[in-house]
Design a protein that fits this description.
The chain is α/β, with parallel strands linked by helices. The chain has two domains: 161 residues, FAD/NAD(P)-binding domain; 199 residues, D-Amino Acid Oxidase, subunit A, domain 2 (D-Amino Acid Oxidase, Chain A, domain 2), CATH 3.30.9.10. Helix content is 30%, strand content 25%. Strands 4, 5, 6, 7, 14, 15, 16, 17 and 18 form a nine-stranded mixed beta sheet that branches. It has a six-stranded mixed beta sheet with strand order 9-2-1-13-20-19, covered by helices on one side. A three-stranded antiparallel beta sheet has the order 10-11-12, with no helix packed on it. A hairpin with a 2-residue loop joins strand 11 and strand 12. The structure holds flavin-adenine dinucleotide (FAD). The site of flavin-adenine dinucleotide (FAD) has 42 residues, from helix 1, strand 14 and strand 18. Flavin-adenine dinucleotide binds next to helix 1, strand 14 and strand 18.
Amino acid sequence: MKIIVLGAGVAGVTTAYMLAKRGHSVTVIDRQPEPGRECSFANGAQISYSHAEPWANPHAIKKALQWILRDDAPLLFHFRLDPAMWGWAARFLKRCNWKDSNEGTIHTLRLGLYSRLEMHKLVEESGIEFHYQKRGIVHIFTRENDMPHAYRQADFQVPYGSPYEKLTRDECVALEPSLKPQSGRICGGMRYTLDETGDIFAYCKELAKKAATLGVIFKYDEPVTALKRDGDQIRAVVTSAGTYEPDAVVMALGAYSQPLLRTVGIKLPIYPMKGYSISVTIDDPEKAPIASVTNQMEKQVYTRIGNILRVAGTAEFAGYNHDINPVRTRLLKESTKFWFAGCGDVDAATEWACLRPQSPDGCAVLGKTPYRNLWLNTGQGTLGWTLCAGSAKAVCDLLEGKTPEVDLTGLTIDRF
Ligand SMILES: Cc1cc2nc3c(=O)[nH]c(=O)nc-3n(C[C@H](O)[C@H](O)[C@H](O)COP(=O)(O)OP(=O)(O)OC[C@H]3O[C@@H](n4cnc5c(N)ncnc54)[C@H](O)[C@@H]3O)c2cc1C
């Protein structure tokens, strides 16, 4: 089949690679000069299959009210006259109850655990390297108040295949010795043992190279401007360079999926949720984490990628705006200086911000659309890196008329 994959982020590149392995003729189109230059560039580097709890949970409203309008809060909402944002927020709030939150956890965890297996296969067969580490991820608590909810969530996930270990302060430090200088601030922790880490940008570049050797054509610097329909199918993809007429199209434009889908009348409640990261060159490896630490209170992650310490977090609703708000990056820098003092020159860190493709229920949107040859691989939000292999495999199966190995209940467009 002649297939066009829209987007060369982690979703698009993984899908293109898998389609090419199955013998399809694949073209990937992206507006950037190389793969992984938007949301798949400098993220938190956690492949956190166990991090399946949706942001829309019963605690979210209380936390959001505490944080509202505070420029330095983990969540920042810019009040704008934007119907898409308010529509998204209404759906999000409706899901802030135990039933919906538990359901969302189960759907995302199922896809996550499937992704883990598919990621292992992909890495083994492709041989790509991206500072991949399978050491689990340590979570630390600095407030007793945060612990019951986190342990409740972890306990809930165990029967679905997500093991974890409760940790004392000393056990946190034993696993991640660079926490020692500030260990007095830690009141407890846990470790999700299946979780992994790796450099998403290196993954995208390496996998795109492999895909190219399998015949995938990458068209860069080529913005897609519209889709054209004909009855129940997509007839053409229009770009700055011309028009393509493929047999099938995979939508993997991340946070920009929705504007393009709108050109053929599809309304998907995916909204851009901005996140920030800093990358610090590590001068003293003993003062940086070995793998990754999640700070539950500040909602920040600190991950080692070779000689780089990546610190990421925060969520900001500001529409399609990529600007870096210095207050947000200052938060990341201050916490890095506090927890990992002396690891490197934090003031010289590279700053980055990008837009996560966020659905209101926090779950991916995969597979079919009202058009028989248009397939979705988007909406993974805070977990796009984690869920890429399973998402891509399921979409490839559907595209070939097969039933995916993973149950896609709660992960398709039907739920909206
Ligand atoms: C601060 C931060 C930290 C994060 N940490 C983690 C983490 O630790 N673990 C995790 O699993 N996930 C994390 N995420 C989320 C993850 O990075 C994203 O979900 C994932 O990268 C999205 O991949 P994608 O391929 O869907 O989108 P993208 O990577 O954004 O790819 C979409 C592509 O489409 C292209 N494009 C868009 N519009 C057009 C157009 N009109 N024409 C042509 N091309 C176009 C873009 O150039 C881009 O290359 C984080 C995100 C952020 C912002």
